[in-house]
Amino acid sequence: MLYHTYELTHAALSPLKAFTQTAQYLNSSIYNPLAYTPMGKSVAAACEVFNRTTRRYGKPEWGIESTTQDGEVIPLSREIQLCTPFCDLLHFRRDQGHGMEALPKVLIVAPLSGHYPTLLRGTVAAMLPEHDVYITDWRDARMVPASLGPWGLDDCIDTISDLIRFMGEGVHVIAVCQPSVPVLAACAIMAEDNDPCQPASMILMGGPIDTRKNPTSVNRHAKTKDISWFENTVISRVPFPHPGMMRSVYPGFIQLTGFMTMNLNRHMKAHVSLYNDLVKGDGDSADQHRDFYDEYMSVMDLPAEFYLDTVKTVFQDHTLADGKMIYRDRVVTPKAITKTALMTVEGAKDDICGLGQTAAAHEICENIPTTMKLEFVNQNVGHYGVFNGKRWRTETQPEIAKFIRAHNLE
Q: What is the architecture of the domain spanning 68-220+302-406?
C-alpha cells in the first residue's frame, strides 16, 4: 500500500502543481510587468520551490559528449555493449577509435542504492582522458517486468562476473560504494575457478566490506531491526501502470527520504536559499542548486530480493568479512585472490561508510602480495567526495590512475 499511497499523493497534487506551474510562468514572463516587482519575483520563486519539491524526477542525462587527451578534444558516443534484464553495459566510445585500444579498460560498477548511475558523471568524466571507460547502467526495477523473475545479491554477482568476462582479460574494476561487496565476491569466485578473465585490479571506493568498523548511523540503523521488519515495512509492490507492476521493490522514494532526513536542516536551508536567490536574481547560485537537486532527487527502485539480501548479508551478518558469505551454495573465499591488485579508497569524513570499512578488504584478501595493495584515504572528503568533486579530480583520481598503470597488463 505504501507505493500506492505515494502514487495517489502525486495524483492528488496534480491540480495544485498545474496551478503553481502556471503561476510561475506568468510571474516570470518577460511580457508581464509584475514579473519585475518584488511581489512578482516572490510569487515566481515560491512556485518554483514548490514545484521542484513535489515534481517527479526522471533519469538524468549523462551529458558527456567529449573528453580531452593530450590537448585534443575527442568526441564521444555512448554505446550499449551488453544487455541483461537489470543492467546495460554502457561504453563511452571515442569516435573513430582515437587510440582507444592502447588505453586500460575500466569497468565502473555504479552504486545500486537508489540513485541512477548518472550520479557518477564526474567519476566517469575524470577517468575518460586516460582510460577506456565502461559503466554498469542499472535499470530501474519498476521498469522491469515481473515475469523476468526475482533478482538478488547472487544475481548481482553473476551480472558483474558476466560483464567482466564480456570485456575480456586485463580489465580494471572500480566499485563505488555498495557494489564493493559483490565486486569482491565476484573476483573471489573467479579466482577460485582460475578464470582467465580475472580483473587486473579492483578499486573499492567507500564500500561496506565490514560495517562493524567505525559504524555510522546508517550501519547502526540496519542492526536495530530484524530482517522481517525491513521486508514488512519498506518493501512494496510496483503499482499499475508501470511495466514492472506487481514486482516487489524497495522504492527509491523511501531511500531518498532516508537520505534527506539524515541532513534535513541542510536541505531545508538549501531550498530557502534557492527562494532567496531567485528573488534576488542570482541566477548562478540558483542554477547550481537546480543541477545538484535534479540529480539528487532522481531515484530508482531496487529489486526487493537484492535490497534484503544486502541488508542481511552486509549490514547485519557481516558474512563476507567473516569468511562465511554464501554464493549459490559456495563459500566466497577472498583469500583465493592472488592475481588481482587491490586498492581501497576512503574519505576520512565519510558519514555513510565509516573509515576502515573499505580498507577491511586488505585483511580478508590476505594472499594478494603486498606490492599489489594500496590503501588510500582522502582526509578532506565525505562520502560523496570519495568519487566526485574537485578533490576527487585533483587528489583521488590521479592516485587511481597511477595504480591502474602500475598493474595494467600489456
A: 3-Layer(aba) Sandwich (3.40)
What gap in Å lies between CA 72 and CA 53, rounded to an integer? 41
Whether the CB-CB separation of 393 and 243 falls below 8 Å is answered with no
Name the β-bridge partners of 295. Answer: none
Domain boundaries, the chain: 2-56+252-296, 68-220+302-406
* Strand 248-250 versus strand 373-378 pairing type: unpaired
DSSP 81-147: EEEETTEEEEEEEETT-TTGGGSPEEEEE---SSB-GGGGHHHHHHHGGGSEEEEEEEPPGGGS-GG
Report percent pLDDT > 90 for the chain: 71
> Model-level pTM?
0.92
Instruction: Please tell me the distance from the alpha carbon of residue 17 to that of residue 23, in angstroms, as a whole number.
Output: 10
Q: Of how many residues is the chain composed?
A: 410
The overall average pLDDT reported for the chain is: 92
pLDDT at 399 over 70: yes
Check: CB of residue 104 under 8 Å from CB of residue 405.
Answer: yes
